[in-house]
Design brief:
- The protein is mainly alpha-helical.
- It has twelve helices and four strands.
- A two-stranded antiparallel ribbon has the order 1-2. Strands 3-4 form a two-stranded antiparallel sheet.
- The protein has a domain of 210 residues.
- Bound molecules: zinc ion (ZN) (2 copies).
- The site of one zinc ion (ZN) has 5 residues, from loops.
- One zinc ion binds next to strand 4.
Length: 327
């Protein structure tokens, strides 16, 4: 059985589809397993991971401002420290903003239409770039994947916020590892008492209570945070580059897996060098929603809630009427 199809289409698909296996009992068992998986991923794992993302980002930010920046202020000039502080605040605002938007904005409900082909679960029109997500229980236009870290699908409705969250998080983790190397080196890698956090004469008001927990606590905290940022930088950075490539090529991850884009299949070199294509700029202007006078500096570099240019159905029943992408 194609477990990917089962994941997308849910337990009814497994129960009713003969390709799921000839033994009816096995089909029932698999149906209940998929049902359990849906419940587990959406209601338990997903909610826990959203809480974990907020907690871990808050923890890293706290460590950056209470340990890393004070420690580095002895090595770096005041100007550099202030630039780091301002840039870090800018990144934190963008990371939280885009994570909140990515995890709460509807992923991309299609407009109501009875035109065939219909989704066999929603009974609504299902265009070629639309896929039904069994976890979310709805069709998603330009579905990229169901992301457990935001507990919903990444689709036409929230893909820009997801990409910006992933991008800002990658830059933030790189900055933490780059600027905080001497903090990591002197407090964990080669700790010498006179160069450790609690022994260099820092006078901020939180230092006494932080140091009352001992050098080992500071070492462990620095080690955990630094490793976490390094791991996130490589994993999320890889996801960011992968997303950039897919979007540049007008593809989505689910679409690629399901072979929807066979007419767009190109050579590996073309896939890896999308900027050579003549429509590269237009693809990105559409993806980022930079129409109707919107600009990169105001609507992408700064937090912006502007809706995508694809016509979608929102909670308020409204949609942007002007279709700009071929969906
Ligand atoms: Zn559907
Ligand atoms: Zn989903």
């Amino acid at each position: 059985m194609d477990s990917f199809d089962a994941f997308l289409n849910g337990p009814e698909y497994v129960l009713n589809n003969r390709r799921s296996g000839r033994c009816p009992r096995l089909r029932v068992c698999m149906g209940y397993f998929v049902l359990f998986l849906e419940f587990f991923v959406r209601n338990l794992l997903g909610k826990f991971l959203v809480f974990a993302v907020y907690s871990l980002v808050s923890f890293v930010v706290t460590v950056a401002f209470t340990i890393l920046l004070p420690y580095e202020s002895l090595r770096l000039s005041q100007v550099v420290i202030w630039i780091l502080v301002v840039f870090a605040i800018y990144l934190v605002i963008n990371i939280f903003y885009h994570y909140r938007k990515a995890s709460t904005t509807p992923s991309g409900r299609p407009l109501r239409s009875n035109e065939p082909p219909l989704c066999n679960r929603c009974r609504n029109h299902k265009s070629i770039h639309t896929h039904h997500c069994s976890m979310c229980g709805e069709c998603v236009v330009n579905m990229d994947h169901h992301c457990v870290w935001i507990n919903r699908c990444v689709g036409a409705g929230n893909h820009r916020h997801f990409l910006q969250f992933v991008g800002f998080l990658t830059i933030g983790c790189f900055l933490f590892c780059f600027a905080g190397y001497s903090t990591f080196y002197n407090n964990y890698w080669r700790p010498v008492e006179k160069t450790m956090f609690c022994h260099i004469g820092l006078d901020s008001f939180w230092i006494p209570s932080l140091c009352s927990m001992g050098d080992d606590f500071i070492s462990a905290t620095v080690f955990f945070t630094y490793c976490l940022c390094a791991i996130i930088f490589f994993l999320v950075g890889g996801l960011f580059v992968w997303n950039l490539l897919l979007i540049s090529n007008g593809q989505t991850y689910v679409g690629l897996l399901k072979g929807d884009y066979s007419h767009l299949k190109r050579s590996t070199t073309e896939f890896l060098t999308p900027w050579r294509r003549p429509d590269f700029r237009e693809v990105w202007i559409d993806f980022l929603g930079l129409r109707k006078g919107r600009t990169f500096w105001r609507h992408i570099a700064l937090p912006s809630a502007h809706r995508p240019t694809v016509p979608l159905r929102w909670d308020d029943g409204k949609f942007d009427a002007e279709p700009l992408l071929d969906v």
